Write a sequence for this structure.
């Protein structure tokens, strides 16, 4: 039996999730917007979408009737309120365990080295992820990866931490992975095409 395509594999993950966190660029390209619109359209009835209050990708997620929106104003003032809001979104989704999924569409390459001293890397520490790297989307993705159960298991087994090199600077790409032990299987990059999605930018 042939292996499922990346698009169908991610669609299956999306349909199986009960809680889905969505994060991405404030100034998302049309391709990224189409990809996330496609992703939330795959969700099962009753699934909860958790997102922030920013324009761009967050706005697409807020269009889902079941959306739970975290607003920065609830977390104080200044730039730090956005980091605290994003941290709360990630932790809320991670708290749903194996039924949770994270969808991210940063829209550009990681702004800081994913390898080497001082680079942004997956971590369960919000302070380590939101450390002035210049992208809340990437910081949220790093924190989400760091909180995934399969990440902790892999670390204890001596496996290499997942890098960010797989998320290339391709508009319209998104990443989806689960927080449970099965999450690594669903760790995919996909650029869906088809009706309403277009062929790229």
């Amino acid at each position: 039996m042939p292996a499922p395509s990346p698009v169908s594999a991610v669609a299956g993950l999306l349909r199986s999730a009960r809680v889905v966190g969505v994060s991405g660029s404030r100034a998302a390209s049309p391709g990224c917007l189409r990809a996330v619109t496609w992703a939330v359209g795959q969700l099962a009835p009753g699934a909860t979408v958790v997102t922030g209050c920013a324009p761009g990708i967050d706005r697409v997620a807020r269009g889902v009737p079941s959306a739970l929106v975290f607003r920065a104003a609830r977390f104080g003032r200044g730039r730090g309120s956005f980091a605290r809001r994003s941290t709360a979104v990630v932790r809320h989704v991670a708290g749903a365990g194996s039924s949770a999924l994270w969808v991210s569409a940063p829209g550009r390459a990681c702004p800081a080295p994913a390898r080497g001293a001082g680079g942004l890397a997956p971590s369960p520490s919000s302070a380590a992820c939101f450390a002035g790297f210049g992208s809340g989307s990437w910081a949220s993705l790093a924190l989400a990866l760091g909180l995934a159960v399969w990440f902790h298991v892999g670390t204890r087994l001596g496996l290499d931490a997942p890098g960010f090199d797989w998320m290339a600077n391709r508009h319209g790409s998104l990443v989806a992975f689960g927080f449970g032990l099965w999450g690594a299987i669903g760790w995919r990059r996909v650029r869906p095409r088809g009706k309403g999605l277009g062929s790229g930018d």
Remarks:
- The helical segments are 6-16, 30-41, 57-62, 80-94, 126-129, 136-147, 149-156.
- The first strand starts at residue 19 and ends at 24.
- The radius of gyration is 16 Å.
- The beta strands are 19-24, 48-51, 68-69, 100-105, 174-178, 188-190.
